User: Fold Alkanesulfonate monooxygenase from Pseudomonas parafulva.
Amino acid sequence: MSLNIFWFLPTHGDGKYLGTAQGARAVDHGYLQQIAQAADRLGFGGVLIPTGRSCEDSWLVAASLIPVTERLKFLVALRPGIISPTVAARQAATLDRLSNGRALFNLVTGGDPDELAGDGLHLNHQERYEASVEFTRIWRKVLEGEEVDYDGKHIQVKGAKLLYPPIQQPRPPLYFGGSSEAAQDLAAEQVELYLTWGEPPSAVAEKIAQVRDKAAAQGREVRFGIRLHVIVRETNAQAWDAAEKLISHLDDDTIARAQASLARFDSVGQQRMAALHNGRRDKLEVSPNLWAGVGLVRGGAGTALVGDGPTVAARVKEYAALGIDTFIFSGYPHLEESYRVAELLFPHLDVQRPQPATSGGYVSPFGEMVANDILPKSVAQR
Assistant:
């Protein structure tokens, strides 16, 4: 099975070390453009753009990068509760047209009560999922060309419609991740691809089975994806050294503060991530080559696959065997790590990607590319 491999745009910041300003990079448009263009050229299928008050706006970032990329797709956050579903449908269709069909959308209900309150959303966990279901029903139908009247508990629209349709038909695909029962019910009814964070394969298999059964009960099929960091090097020893270096500036107080802040989240997925390490740095390999060090201070995706190319590829294939066809990777810092992943991991996987640009067949001082009609025969046959 060919795999869809996406990369990540660090609109909340980037650097060489976690939990410190040392080696941190300013995230400006030029840097995001560098990462997006690298991902585009290297053959990543798309980029995930995060959302939240610590991030640049995902929609504006995507729109700004459309003109400077060619094939790259943009997985943009869709936030129920803080925008009308009809307005969001118009924005989605516009982005899809402007990008010539390169727009994807990631439904994000949110898990930080403080942030949600700051955005004017005061619903509890269960109510947010109720509102998300209503939002998504309207959003999907409007994008698919229907005129919608909807009288829900949280959202009411009358005569909602779209005059200018998206390029992708019947509409751009919808991605979504959530570990609670309510989240799985939403996924089974509404989305094309269900995302999980990087838990051990046995836990991921359980979630996939649950969502697949729920979708089948509604006569639907759902694809599956996973969100992971990657630390890949030429040898396993170098990869594990890089993992330790990434958290080398973390002290116990920094970890404790980060975990206390993340503990206020009502996200079941975040709780599952935290349970992998429990704030301790002495037992971070939670499954073979699956390392939970990132989650000591980072919310959301907190695990990384660590190893050389063949080792990480073997772990990726274990997840693929469970039914996962889409992998959203990231690594610190994101520009350099995009090259490492493409150079060290891609050759060991069946990656579904566009053909990269060629350099004309000339000999590089870093390796030979042979073109018989340009090079002397003695060189071309070396």
